[in-house]
Amino acid sequence: MNARRLLPIQHLAQQREDDQARQFAEQQKVLESIADEAAYEHPVDALNLVSSLPVSSTRDNLIAAATAMWAATAPEDAAGWAKQIPDEMLRGQTMANVVTIWAVSDPVAAGKLAVNSMNPGPWQDRAVISIVEQWGRIDMSGATAWVDQFPEGTVRQTATAMLAHEPRGH
């Protein structure tokens, strides 16, 4: 075959490949949209759906959001699921979301989870600061006592400064 005859065939093959990629991208967007909607009312179903998506920042954000929604009604279950996430960054983000939500209703349990189950690092630091903020709103003395147990460092300084500016809780 000469080169002239191959060009139309190559063009058709490329066009078919482009169409398949476009169709796949459209299917992914539909699944992401469904998962986003489901996260609010059926977070466990949303997590099952989203977990099947290819790795992407959108998928990771949906996982973190759905787990946070789940934490509002079943924080221990959401935390148990989040602990199993193999990707360390996604696990940290998701666990931070879970403990932040949990801190609204039970800052002691959220604090224990953050300290005992999260890897040290920025996600744990953010989670602890968020817990201190929530805890300080409802029980300033409990939050202060917890912060007083922190080792010296940036997290303790940030938490102490936050509590100093927080309106007094119950």
Would you write up a description of this structure?
The radius of gyration is 23 Å and the shape is elongated. The chain has one domain. 82% of the residues lie in helices and 0% in strands. It is an all-alpha fold. It starts with a helix and ends in a 5-residue tail after the last helix. The chain contains 9 helices and no strands.
Structure in a nutshell:
This protein is an all-alpha fold and 170 residues long. It has 9 helices and no strands.
Write the layout of secondary structure elements.
Blueprint: H1 3-41, H2 43-50, H3 57-73, H4 75-83, H5 88-105, H6 107-117, H7 122-138, H8 140-148, H9 154-165
Mean of residue pLDDT values:
83
| Gyration radius over CA | 23 Å
- What would you call the structural class? mainly alpha
Number of helices: 9
Using brief descriptors, characterize the structure shown.
170 residues; mainly alpha
